[in-house]
Amino acid sequence: MASSNFIDDDDDFDNPIPFFNGQKYYYWKDRMQSFLMGNHFDEWEAIEDGPFVPTYIVDGLTKEKPRCEWTNDDKKMVRVDWKAKSLLFGALSDDQLRHVFECETAQQVWNTLRDIHEGTGKVKMQRINSLTIEYERFCMKPGENIDDMQMRFYDLVNHLASLEKRIPNVDLVYKVLRSLSRKWQHKVRTIMT
After folding, report:
1. Which residues in 96-148 belong to E strands, given as ranges?
2. What is the rounded distance in angstroms from the CA atom of residue 32 to the CA atom of residue 7?
3. What is the CA radius of gyration of the chain?
4. Phi first, then psi: what are they for 62, rounded to 5°?
5. pTM of the predicted protein model
6. Does residue 13 register a pLDDT over 50?
7. Can you list the positions of beta strands (E) in the chain?
8. How far from each other are the two terminal CA atoms of the chain, in whole angstroms?
9. Where are the domains of the chain?
10. E strand or H helix at 105, and its extent?
11. pLDDT in tens, 121-154
């Protein structure tokens, strides 16, 4: 049976939830964001903006409401974060869940996964630099077919884009053409003229 990148649970979701086993975080992140925005927009907002905290104002100061004073609307809003956290937990392998199990909010889960897999500050810059060097040195491997080369190239470019380094399409096209082996040079010349 082929491996799946999704968990299929027709009872709870309009679309299957993207599953993350620790591989290619940059793809999962985009899939998960699209899944949440398309099917669970309130939960995506809880991840982006943080959890709803019921409050009231006393003498011009905002104070957190005790749980016994929460209205039904307050409870609904608080549940959104718990549902978002539940969706994220359900999308993670046991190995990934270990990293975020102690997180209290969906936003903390999302940010922790991002920091682990993308890095922060200097680590992120080092990843970008390393991937940029890999991009600059990219070429077709001996004996590699065009489809495999293209998949390696897409993975590299998408990983850079996930770290917010985007390369213009025209540069990508020229890079692919320059990266092809000698056996492709007659086609490259034809394309370039």
Report:
1. none
2. 12
3. 22
4. -85, 125
5. 0.71
6. no
7. 6-7, 17-18, 55-58, 61-64
8. 46
9. 6-118, 121-192
10. none
11. 888 889 899 999 999 999 999 999 999 999 999 9
pLDDT digits (tens, 9 = 90+) for 56-81: 898 899 999 999 999 999 999 999 99
Answer yes or no: is pLDDT of 113 > 50. Answer: yes
Tokens linked to 119: 């890095």
Q: Given a cut of 70, is residue 4 above it in pLDDT?
A: no
Question: What number of helices (H) and strands (E) belong to the chain?
Answer: 9, 4
Both tokens of residue 144? 């590699």
Q: What is the pLDDT of residues 86-105, one digit of tens each?
A: 999 999 999 999 999 999 99
Residue 60: CB partners within 8 Å, gap ≥ 6? none
19, 5 contact by CB (below 8 A): yes
State the Cα–Cα distance between residues 181 and 187, nearest whole angstrom.
11
